[in-house]
């Protein structure tokens, strides 16, 4: 079951080229709220089944089981969605049964927009929007990033150290 619960970021690294992970970003806990609420609703439906007529007891059990499975699926999908910052690029791996992998070299990053909605400012999360020279890309919006200012600074530090934005001025 490990292949279903671990995105295995190491397999995507270019170790021969000296690529190392600077930061592996998991979703902020608020991304799991919907999944948690669905599981609570499912538990309520399952707890309701002893109190309905015996002829209909199967209905809350089936609906509760389906809602619980959907909640677990949503939670697992959020867990498997990882955003990784390395010394050479940024990439995102997501998907439970089938995996998608999108990557962007540091040299292609033109702009990073960090948006923090009011609730995100209170709870400590934000969303990234990457702009590059390409019109369509698989790595554009990264949502529910915990400590977004620190993650943005980590990316900026890596870009600066790689020499892509010119020398530092003292």
Describe the structure in your own words.
This protein has two domains: 2-27 and 83-161, Pleckstrin-homology domain (PH domain)/Phosphotyrosine-binding domain (PTB) (PH-domain like, Roll); 33-75. 37% of the residues lie in helices and 25% in strands. It is built from five helices and seven strands; from the N terminus they run αβααββββαββα. It has helices at 2-5, 33-48, 58-80, 118-123, 148-161; strands spanning 21-25, 82-86, 89-94, 100-105, 109-115, 125-132, 141-146. The strands form two sheets. The protein has a four-stranded antiparallel β-sheet. A three-stranded antiparallel β-sheet has the order 5-6-7. The longest helix has 23 residues, at 58-80. The radius of gyration is 21 Å and the shape is elongated. The mean pLDDT is 88.
Give a quick rundown of the structure.
With 170 residues, this protein is α+β, with helices and mostly antiparallel strands. The protein has 2 domains: 2-27 and 83-161, PH-domain like; 33-75. It has helices at 2-5, 33-48, 58-80, 118-123, 148-161, and strands spanning 21-25, 82-86, 89-94, 100-105, 109-115, 125-132, 141-146.
